[in-house]
Design a protein that fits this description.
The protein is of the alpha/beta class. The chain has 2 domains: 31-121, Leucine Dehydrogenase, chain A, domain 1 (Rossmann fold), CATH 3.40.50; 154-276, Rossmann fold (3-Layer(aba) Sandwich). Helices cover 43% and strands 15% of the residues. Helix 2 crosses helix 11 (276-298) and helix 7 (154-166) crosses helix 11 (276-298).
Length: 300
């Protein structure tokens, strides 16, 4: 029997409806709007697509969205000044720096060890990448969170929402993550551990990825290498969440051999249409949490 397809668009639609209601209530309660500002340097096709979805969803749920587009010749000092101004702007609740940055800024970031996303205030960090927000995942547990609502990387949150939609109890489950990036693999491993999953993270130095994957009750891959994971490696009745995307002959492909894997798994995400649609929804959830956190802070 083929696996049940985990449609990210359906889950995202439910979250969107919940956000609309919550935002309407917050606006009425506090008498002010919720604002997200996007910073973009230069032009990139991938950025434009993501930016369009951010703007559309923000408008749909009731979040004010402002896009600041800087010339590709912008240097680090100018970018830092924009970030600083947004940090100090009381009307702005959240900031996102669109990546990739132009090569020139990437080089300046590496040479000066700037980590531009770390310059965005933790209280306005829409992507959950500030060290303070990432660090909060270390201390959080399933039953007890930090003082204020936690902010976490959007794609990692999207994966957790997809797992939640299956109804599976993570306690004791063997979970294998392929890929250990700071925006997916690493934070996701902490989230899973906080739910008492037995979590293994595979990466470029892992000698025998296949042997780990074959044991996985839940397999999550976020590499971006098309069909890296063979369908025959997938454990029977497992959950397969494919975060990786790569364009092959004009079509998007995931990390997992979809057709073969879906004949073995119980649940599987498609590429595209799985994790992707949920990432923007998680971004908006972060924006709402930041707004709530800022008002809670005023009342402490």
């Amino acid at each position: 029997m083929s696996a049940k397809i985990l449609d990210g668009k359906i889950i995202a639609a439910e979250i969107k409806n919940d956000l609309k209601r919550e935002i309407a209530n917050l606006k009425e309660k506090f008498g002010c709007s919720i604002k997200l500002v996007s910073l973009q340097v230069g032009h990139n096709g991938g950025i434009e697509s993501y930016l369009k979805s951010q703007k559309s969803l923000a408008s749909n749920v009731g979040i004010d969205f402002e896009s600041i587009s800087l010339d590709e010749t912008t240097d680090s000092q100018i970018l830092l000044q924009y970030i600083n101004d947004l940090n100090n702007n009381k009307e702005v609740n959240a900031v996102i720096l669109q990546r990739p940055l132009p090569d020139k800024l990437d080089l300046q970031e590496q040479e000066k060890k700037l980590a531009f996303e770390q310059q965005i205030s933790a209280e306005k960090d829409a992507e959950g990448l500030h060290l303070r927000n990432l660090g909060s995942l270390f201390y959080a547990t399933k039953l007890k969170q930090c003082l204020w609502g936690k902010i976490a990387p959007c794609t990692a949150q999207a994966v957790m929402e997809i797992i939640k939609s299956t109804g599976v109890n993570l306690y004791g489950k063997e979970v294998v993550i392929v890929g250990h990036s700071k925006i997916i693999g690493k934070p996701l491993s902490l989230m899973l551990l906080n739910h008492f999953a037995t979590t293994t993270v595979c990466h470029i130095a892992t000698g025998d990825i296949k042997s780990h994957i074959e044991k996985a009750d839940i397999l999550i891959s976020a590499v971006g290498k098309p069909e890296l994971i063979k369908g025959e490696w997938v454990k029977e009745n497992s959950i397969v969440i494919d975060v990786g995307t790569a364009r092959v002959n004009g079509c998007l492909k995931g990390d997992v051999e979809f057709e073969a894997a879906k004949e073995r798994a119980a649940y599987i995400t498609p590429v595209p249409g799985g994790v992707g649609p949920l990432t923007t929804a998680m971004l908006m959830k972060n924006v709402v949490r930041l707004f709530i956190n800022s008002h809670d802070k005023k009342n402490i």
